[in-house]
Amino acid sequence: MKQQDILKFWRDIEIFDLPDLNNDASLIEFNETLPWLNEAVPAKKNYKWRYTLVFGKIEKKQILDHLNALLETDSKNDWEESVQGFSCLSALILNEEGRPEQDNYFIASYIFGISLLENKEKLSTVSLNLEDAREDFLERFNIPEIILEKDEESPKGDVVYWEHIKREIVYLNELSKWKNEEIKVFLLTEEVPKDSEPNSGFLNSFYLDDLNFLTCLEKKNQSTALQ
């Protein structure tokens, strides 16, 4: 097997690595009062509140069944264990005021992978799809995109109301018409140290961009180790 084939195989695995739905996130009902808009209990000294909105609760088996149908493969081999648990579609981290920053939005890469397979297109464009999704997010939540200097504070978007949440649901529905369930919204509320940073990669692989870059390299530009 050629090195490029191995890299493409690894990249494809990373695209379809299904993120887990956080079991600590609680379902919120549409139009109920959002905690950052309420009189919140003050966080303890040297701590702050952090809110994470999680969109969608989808059985991983449903996703894999749809992938198997697209790839025209058997759904299960005798030696395989059935996949368990639930995945999600996207997540948005908010500060105490309910405002997002430019790097606090995450959309699962498998959504774009499925769309490309449905349209018989190459998976190599997933990284571009993720970048487009980020730009769409900045526009939806009114966040200016700037290159930050060292120690410069990240710009913040609008305070999130239900109107923003409903727009996110509409956006995700357009990208995932294959799913059976309506998109529900979950909320994770955390009291964290004031100087802590949110986990910026819990939905997608850190390696995806690098693998995509390597798979597109011509052989003459590959390092000796890669060859």
Care to describe what's here?
The protein is α+β, with helices and mostly antiparallel strands and 227 residues long. It has six helices and seven strands. It has a five-stranded antiparallel beta sheet. It has a two-stranded antiparallel ribbon with strand order 3-4. Helix 1 runs antiparallel to helix 6 (208-215) and helix 3 (109-118) crosses helix 4. It is globular and about 55 Å long. The chain starts with a helix and ends in a 12-residue tail after the last helix. The model has no long low-confidence stretch (mean pLDDT 82).
How is the topology of this model organized?
Layout: H1 3-15, E1 26-28, E2 47-55, E3 58-59, H2 60-71, E4 86-87, E5 90-94, E6 105-107, H3 109-118, H4 126-140, H5 162-175, E7 185-193, H6 208-215
Antiparallel strand pairs: 1-7, 2-5, 2-7, 3-4, 5-6
Briefly note the structural class of the backbone: alpha+beta
Using only CA atoms, what is the Rg? Answer: 19 Å
Global geometry: globular
Total of DSSP H or I helical runs spanning 4+ residues: 6
- Side-by-side strand order of the widest sheet: 1-7-2-5-6
- Please indicate the percent range of residues in DSSP E strands (runs of 2 or more): 5-15%
Largest sheet: 5 strands, antiparallel
Straight-line N-to-C gap: 12 Å
pLDDT below 50 for ≥5 consecutive residues: which ranges? Answer: none
Order of helices and strands: HEEEHEEEHHHEH
Number of strands: 7
The portion of residues assigned to helices is 25-40%
Overall mean confidence score, pLDDT: 82
Could you name the key traits of this structure?
227 residues, alpha+beta, 5-stranded antiparallel β-sheet, two-stranded antiparallel ribbon, 6 helices, globular
